[in-house]
Amino acid sequence: MIKYLSVLLLFFVGSCGKDHIEECPCYTDHQYPHFKGCEPGAVYDENNNCDVMGLYNQLYKFLKYPQEAINDSVQGRVTIAFDIYENGSIGNYTIFSDTLGHGLANAAIEAIKTLNDRGFCPARENCEPVVYHYILPVLFVLH
Fold it and tell me: What pTM does this model have?
């Protein structure tokens, strides 16, 4: 029994050693949040820009163009603001700019809410996670 516990303890200690890579490391005193939209096993740091592409892929995958806007051929941009919390979740969605109407801002908010499925690496100040106010433009284009 003691031998079994020793092996388990060695396994857990070994998995937390220097070979373990943190997904969301602190790499600078003032760092922006990163959307966890990269390939599995990615490390989010200053050299990794796949998070922006992942964010927009997720957003546009779930964005639903309101039928009213399609019927009236409404196209353009709405801008949504939201908070990224210390734990990487998002909330506090507000319409920052919407001159188009037709339900486009609400459609953008619904799509943005799906970003919680993957979450974010939080913003950091002096390596401590902080709330970050994010402003995201969402483009609506009819094809």
Answer: 0.77
Q: What value does the CA radius of gyration of the chain take, rounded to a whole number of Å?
A: 20
Instruction: Specify the amino acid at residue 104.
Output: L
- Return the sign of the alpha-carbon dihedral for residues 103, 77, 48, 120: negative
Cα(60)–Cα(42) distance, integer angstroms: 22
End-to-end CA distance of the chain: 67
Q: Give the span between the Cα atoms of 140 and 138, in whole angstroms.
A: 7
Say what the alpha-carbon torsion angle 91, 96, 110, 77 is, to the nearest 10 degrees.
Answer: -150
Q: Where does the chain show beta strands of DSSP type E?
A: 30-31, 34-35, 76-84, 90-97, 120-121, 123-125, 128-130, 132-140
The per-residue pLDDT for range 4-47, each reduced to its tens digit, is 443 333 333 333 333 445 778 888 889 899 888 877 777 777 76
